[in-house]
Each structure stands twice: as structure tokens, then as C-alpha cells.
Amino acid sequence: MDFDQLAADIKSWGKALGFQTIGISDVNLDAAEKGLMNWLAKGFHGDMDYMAKHGTKRSRPAEILPGTSRIITARLNYRPPAARDSWETLHDGNAAFISRYALGRDYHKVMRKRLQQLTEKIQAETGAAHFRVFTDSAPVMEVALAQKSGIGWRGKHTLLLTRDHGSWFFLGEIFTDLPLPVDPPIVDHCGTCQSCIDICPTQAIVAPYQVDARRCISYLTIELHGSIPIELRPLIGNRVYGCDDCQLTCPWNKFAQTTGESDFHVRHGLDNITLIQAFGWTEQLFHKNMAGSAIHRIGYERWLRNIAVGLGNAPTSGAVIAALESRLAYPSQLVQEHVKWALTQHQVST
């Protein structure tokens, strides 16, 4: 089989399926593994115990799928068109800011389906059966593999960057044993810029290319199951699901284009919803509106927790106080704790 031609065909098929870029790498992640072990040793993974549990399995793809020798990485842009300006929303203390990637449908389902279609195309052409698809769904070092495959470089905020679309995209992988030719990596183009480090609201980017997840707003509002540390709550502002500040300030994102994927377009007006509106959703309405969304995975309790913090940071008003007081008796100690904190921010005793 002509594997050079096959690699070219895979990239062509991928673009026909809507992917912006397809890259191919080997599975040697020795350098990335050292960084991962150092990161874990510092405890920067916080309560994400699965990160430590998986350990080196994350940096050794063949331990996930024996026989794997190549990784096909795909990039799919997600920046939604017609969404309210992010900075405008962040500076509106009554608005609820939701990370741009979560304004549409759950990317896991969209990416997995598209990657599976590409896999089936490869299988039909080669007759091979040694494949497995991933998209942020297993212990896979996506950014390291994407960097090795030439899709982009790892920015100082630890996200993958490209010169033509910044960082507004999802990544997915296909593990295979096909001996495809690998693509050369791209050199780092961050230079002396440290805009992402300077703007981080909680100073979670503790050094170039190193994030302490315990301080990261995305971790605090999505991955953390318990109480958000009191000292970090005022710094979260109105960010109720994720944080995009490091991407919004990155100079390379001025080249970003909006996505053509309708699944990633804004749903339910999430780009322009107020904190009070979101806090007033019943549990049934939350499940209805968030069905098929990445937000659904945090559940209703943490949704209320996050918005309570946002309301605590909002401009004081009778409406804000009334909204918070309406949840004082909510049957969750986690929610009650954050509601009480929020009320104290408005000088209301509980």
C-alpha cells in the first residue's frame, strides 16, 4: 500500500467531513511525559484524581490501544457566529458569561461522530480494523499529539495555537497501527508575549506553559465538585461556566474565523442571558435547556453554585438580593453556602 498517498487521502477526506486540519504523529511523548509528571507532582491537577490515577498511561498511547504506532489528529473550529461580544458580556456585571465552546451542542458528540465517519472511510479503503476514536474522552495528551502532528504549537496558556485560527477549536484523535508518514511539528510563535499570563483573573498560569488548575476558573466552575475557595470567588466575576480570558487576549486569535458548524451556534440565548434569569431556572428547565450541551454534565446543583458566585459579584440591587434570598432554603448545603456568601457581598446578613 502507498502510505504516502493514503495519508494525503486521509487529509482530503477529513476536510471533506468539515475538519479544518488533519495531522499525523508518532506516539513518542517522552518529553511531554516529563512535564506531565512534574505537573502532577506539584498537585496542579487539584481534585482531578483521575489525572494522577492514569499517570503515564496518558503519555503512552499504546497502553490505551496496544499496537498503536500513529495518531491522526483532527481540528474542528467552534467559534460561534453572531454571539454577543465576549468583552461586553464580561464587563456587564448582570450578565452570565459562558465559555464560547459551550454555547452550542456538546462537542464530544459532534467530534466523535465526525471522527468515526473518517475512520470508516479509512477502513473501507484499507480493510484495516485497528482504530479507536477519542475526543477529550480518555487519558490522551491531545495538545502534545496535535503539536507533534504539525497542527499548531502549545501556547503559554497551554492551549494549542495556530497562525490561521488562534485557539478557537476542538481536537480529536484516531489511534491506529497504520505506518503512515508523520508530519513535522510547528515551532512556537508566542515569542516574548505573555498577554495570557497577565490577564488571567486568578493568576492560574503560574509560569509560561504551566497552569495550576486549582486556580483556573474553568476548573473551579466545571471540574470542581465542592466549594469554590472563598478567596477566589471575587476573582471569578460573572464567569459561570468556564473562562476565555486567555484566549480573548491572545494576539493570534485576531485571525480566528467563525465556525460553519451549526451545532456550535448559540442555543437558548446563552450568549446573552442574565445571572438572575439563569438562577431562576427550575431543575426541569435546566435539564431541558442544557440537554445535548456540555454544560449539562456539571448538573443543576453546581449550576446554581456558580451563578450564586456571579450574583455575589454583581452590582447590588433589590432584584439581585431577592434572587439570592429565594435560594436560601434550597436543599443543598453547597448551594446554600455560596448563596450566603453572595448575600454577605451585598451587606445582607443571613
Automatic annotation (TrEMBL):
Gene3D superfamilies: 3.30.70.20. The active site is at D136. Its cofactor is [4Fe-4S] cluster; cob(II)alamin. Binds 2 [4Fe-4S] clusters per monomer. It holds the Pfam family Fer4_16. Its main location: cytoplasm. InterPro entries: 4Fe4S_Fe-S-bd, 4Fe4S_Fe_S_CS, QueG, QueG_DUF1730. Pathway: tRNA modification; tRNA-queuosine biosynthesis. It catalyses: epoxyqueuosine(34) in tRNA + AH2 = queuosine(34) in tRNA + A + H2O. This is Epoxyqueuosine reductase. The gene is queG.
